[in-house]
């Protein structure tokens, strides 16, 4: 899933509203966290997955590159794992109600702890100092869905870079909620993957117009490196 070039009309609306094309072009790398959503076997491995997004495998190099740049600049990296447990059956029963019995069974089998589906994709460059966080809803920032917001604030992070899969579900849900919980949010255009190009671009466009910023990996790596040098 490649990045996105917004039509001039979209950029013009953003500039008219915010005064600049990239409202978060300047940020403190030491207060920045890369949040990687759901890059697990359940969404990437055809053998065990319940909702495989093929393009999620293609964004792994960009995510690894951005993780390295974030660490080098003094930021943090958080790997988010979509998780199913028995409480989902009662506390999120609507999700069960709108799925077929077969779909519910596949999801439970793929997303439960201690299963291959629940594990992170093996070629992700996870370091010992990174944090791994379980989430129990689409959004990692929904109150009660995960410990991520508290962990970010405890380490002084105010800016989050959102990557992962799928763009228009868990990634966008997390990004929107993060903004509404007062984080500065940047979605990484070539670090997110959706089932189709149309869904990917529609999601990023909606987010860019109202909720936060959208940049690609090359731009973010340059900004992280420059900001780190200036801070030093």
Mean pLDDT: 94
Domains (count): 1
Helix content percent band: 40-55%
Strand order of the largest sheet: 3-2-1-4-5-6
Order of helices and strands: HEHHHEHHHEHEHEHEH
Beta-strand content bin: 15-25%
Any idea what the CATH superfamily is called?
Isochorismatase-like
- The tally of strands reads 6
Any key phrases for this structure?
232 residues, alpha/beta, 11 helices, 44% helix
Describe it for me?
The chain is an alpha/beta fold. It has one domain: Isochorismatase-like (Rossmann fold). 44% of the residues lie in helices and 16% in strands. It contains 11 helices and 6 strands. It has a 6-stranded parallel beta sheet with strand order 3-2-1-4-5-6, with helices on both faces. Strand 4, helix 9 and strand 5 form a beta-alpha-beta unit. The mean pLDDT is 94.
Outline the fold blueprint.
Layout lengths: L7 H11 L13 E6 L3 H4 L10 H4 L1 H13 L3 E7 L4 H5 L1 H5 L3 H11 L19 E5 L12 H7 L4 E7 L1 H14 L3 E10 L3 H14 L2 E3 L1 H15 L1
Parallel strand pairs: 1-2, 1-4, 2-3, 4-5, 5-6
Helix pairs in contact: 1-10, 4-11, 9-10
Brief synopsis:
The protein is an alpha/beta fold and 232 residues long. Helix content is 44%, strand content 16%. It has a six-stranded parallel β-sheet with strand order 3-2-1-4-5-6, with helices on both faces.
